[in-house]
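Hi W., the magnesium ion complex you wanted:
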Amino acid sequence: MEVRTFRAATIQEALALVRRELGPEAAVLQTRHVPRPGLWNRLRRRTEVEVTASLQVQVPSRVPPPGQQPPSPTPSPKPASTEVPLEESLGLHRALSTQLSQLEEMVARLYQESRAARVPEVPEPLFDLFTELLDRDLPEQAAKTLVQQLARQLAPEELQDPLLVRGRLHRLVESQLRVAGPIQLPPGQRRVVALVGPTGVGKTTTIAKLAANFRLRQRRRVGLITVDTYRIAAVEQLRIYAQIIDLPMVVVASPGEMAPALAQLGQVELVLIDTAGRSPRDEVKLHELKAFLTLAQADEVHLVLSASAGASTLLQTARRFDVVGPNRLLLTKLDEAAALGHLLPVLEQVPLPLSYLTDGQNVPDDIQAARADHLVHRLLGQAA
Ligand SMILES: Nc1nc2c(ncn2[C@@H]2O[C@H](COP(=O)(O)OP(=O)(O)O)[C@@H](O)[C@H]2O)c(=O)[nH]1
Ligand SMILES: [Mg+2]
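Structure:
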């Protein structure tokens, strides 16, 4: 039996060769992509099509006559047998193998590019962990630094143990977090706590959560002050909470009113100071705000930032509020961010210990005192 192979750049050209050499009666037995001859072509992974054909084999398949496309599956009547006709499988095979080789080429190229770009800095056994950290929204540099730190801490065989690696990663990040924890109320003393930050981050809502928890759950005496330097009606929201929780509330509109306001609140154990701006661009003038808080002798000034903002916005805002002299960081809207990895470099660069985290609009429930171990889970996912 004579079986011959024909090679050409495309399947069409190969089939034309078969027709010319063997005639239209030739049966196509196989087509496949093979490397092109020559070192250069092999290096570039160039392929050509090889068609194996015979005149003597009795199969229904025939090379389509010149000018005719290989028959498409729909119009040709299905043969009685369940076997797919050769023409059909040929067309399918051709389409699939072209797509497959394109896909393989693309994957190989992307793989090479990504490995070439990252391998020098990312230890190979931690490459998957590295990509997982990127998925969790950690910036590339922060993820690299973490896996490099891990690689230095762990022995090569330990790096092969994913559970051990993850446990160590959590401890490493936990050790880097600064946490102040909740407001402490020493007996017999009045604690003055102010919340500052951009408009809309959740200061007033958080004040209501804190006030309700201290008043209703811990039965402490709480008073509220709103610093509204623009004399606009941003105080109404807090006034409603004050009425519901049944708390005294005083509005302070000029520095001179601060001392009388504190006196007016009387024997409270905790004074919560809410601050208001007009719009994100038009904040309460920050130096003025600082003056109010100095007069109030605030023990704690919590900078409130929303976790739904991007890392650069958060860092920029933190820098802007530096003049107010915050000594705590309070993160809101953790529920709104799809992933929280972007917070890690912010927590590293803003040198304020975390006080509370909020994750919803419900007063008083959606607030927790910050804990390093809980936060690590939220930043990096479960340990196992
Ligand atoms: N999803 C979510 N929304 C919050 C959270 N805290 C506050 N908010 C909402 O954010 C909006 C602005 O809050 P507000 O307290 O008025 O912000 P302020 O301008 O900083 O006082 C309101 O709709 C709040 O209900 C939170 O932790 N998660
Ligand atoms: Mg407000």
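The longest strand covers residues 27-35.

W.
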